[in-house]
TrEMBL record:
It is an enzyme of class 1 (oxidoreductase). It comes from Lentithecium fluviatile CBS 122367. PANTHER family: ALR/ERV (PTHR12645), FAD-LINKED SULFHYDRYL OXIDASE ALR (PTHR12645:SF0). It is found in: Mitochondrion intermembrane space. Residues 1-25 are annotated as: Disordered. Keywords: Disulfide bond, FAD, Flavoprotein, Mitochondrion, Oxidoreductase. The lineage of its organism: Eukaryota, Fungi, Dikarya, Ascomycota, Pezizomycotina. Its cofactor is FAD. GO terms for cellular component: mitochondrial intermembrane space. This is Sulfhydryl oxidase.
Length: 178
């Protein structure tokens, strides 16, 4: 005999069934449910019961012990990736070059936001966008170009890739990082 339907609590229903009309910025996962990692905190709050009806005076901020939203994850990821390029050898061995290309391809597959991961994988497959890792300068410039491709898609100002090393390795020439 097949079991009968299991009743869900109201909380379980709201956690498993996405709202009919989603706020701008909510990204659905491959399972059709809102993807917490791919959605910014303001859109997530607007979708959940935590959203207020009045306009907030400041953008919502998640407590530090909550899963990161897409913006926090992105900033942290770019910081890690640029820091890796800044410490990359000037003349890496062929083995390290191969491992670095493999790392970037795996990173593109494992990135927690599935939408961002797919986009990054597609970008790397385009002509001229495969990871360039024969030197620190080449890898740093490639990473800056990858980051700028995302910035453009997000409507942000591209970074001057001639300054990648100051930003991520040596510090600004005006001494404010010393």
């Amino acid at each position: 005999m097949a079991p009968g339907p299991v009743e869900q609590t109201e909380k379980e229903q709201t956690e498993t069934v996405p709202p009919k009309k989603l706020p701008k910025g909510v990204v659905l996962g491959p399972d059709g449910k809102p993807c917490r990692t791919c959605t910014d905190v303001a859109s997530w709050f607007a979708m959940t019961k935590g959203a207020s009806k009045s306009k907030p005076t400041a953008p919502p901020v998640l407590p530090s012990d909550c899963p990161p939203d897409v913006e926090t994850l992105g900033r942290s990821s770019w910081t890690l990736l640029h820091s890796i390029t800044a410490q990359y050898p000037e003349n890496p061995s062929p083995t390290l070059q191969s491992e670095t290309r493999t790392f970037m391809n795996i990173f593109g597959k494992l990135y927690p936001c599935w939408f961002c991961a797919k986009d990054f994988q597609e970008w790397m497959k385009k002509d001229g966008n495969a990871p360039r890792v024969s030197s620190r300068e080449e890898f740093g410039r490639w990473m800056c170009e990858a980051h700028n491709a995302v910035n453009v898609k997000l409507g942000k100002k591209p970074f001057d890739c001639d300054k990648w090393e100051e930003r991520w390795r040596t510090g600004w020439k005006d001494g404010r990082c010393d």
